[in-house]
Amino acid sequence: MPIPLSAIRFYGIDSVIDFLIFLVAILITYQSYNIYSLLKDKNYKFFSWAFLSISIAFLFKIIVNLTFFHQIEILQTYFLNSALLEYLEFLDWVNFFSTFFYRIFILTGFLILFLIFTKTERKEKVILFIYLCIIVVLFSIYFSFVFHLTLFLLILFLTLYFYRNHQKIKS
Question: pLDDT tier at 10 (50, 70, 90 boundaries)?
Fold first, then answer.
């Protein structure tokens, strides 16, 4: 009897979408670094770092999706041997660390984008934002809604910035 460790309705399609996002993020990283090498503007370097961080995050998210998608067939229903239990424990650890690093890299990428677009250059503010992101990642081990709420707020503030910029410039 196979035991699905994933939402059956996706069947790994989400990993394909995450891989496409990874490819787009890598292309943005490459192009923004090329622009940085031509113009020597540090914002383009930070922009490439942000998208590099986002692309690394999606690599970890693909690993999480694939460990959830993995199926194990149990032949003996009343006796689980130690090798199977060790394998399941290994998958749990891979899933835990992949999720942890996904959260670190995705928050880092969006935080860098937030700091670039809001033109935050004071070191005290940057250190405070980094500290708060570390706290969020640590709390998200037990309460995942903290991570999702923080990421939602970062994306919301970026969206508001772009909307205000669009209203001001009308381009």
Answer: low
Q: For 22-50, what is each residue's pLDDT tens digit?
A: 999 999 999 999 999 999 999 999 999 99
With a CB cutoff of 8 Å and minimum separation 6, the contacts of 105 are: 53, 54, 56, 57, 60
Alpha helices, H only, the chain = 13-39, 42-69, 82-117, 123-139, 144-169
The DSSP output letter for 138 is: H
Return the number of other C-beta atoms located less than 10 Å from residue 60's C-beta. Answer: 20
Question: If you compute the radius of gyration of the chain from its CA atoms, what whole number of angstroms results?
Answer: 20
Give residue 122's identity as a one-letter amino acid code.
R
Q: How far from the centroid of its chain's Cα atoms is residue 154's Cα?
A: 13
Measure the CA–CA gap between 41 and 44, rounded to whole angstroms: 6
Please report which confidence band the pLDDT of residue 83 belongs to, taking 50, 70 and 90 as the band edges: low
User: CA–CA separation, 54 vs 167, rounded Å?
Assistant: 28
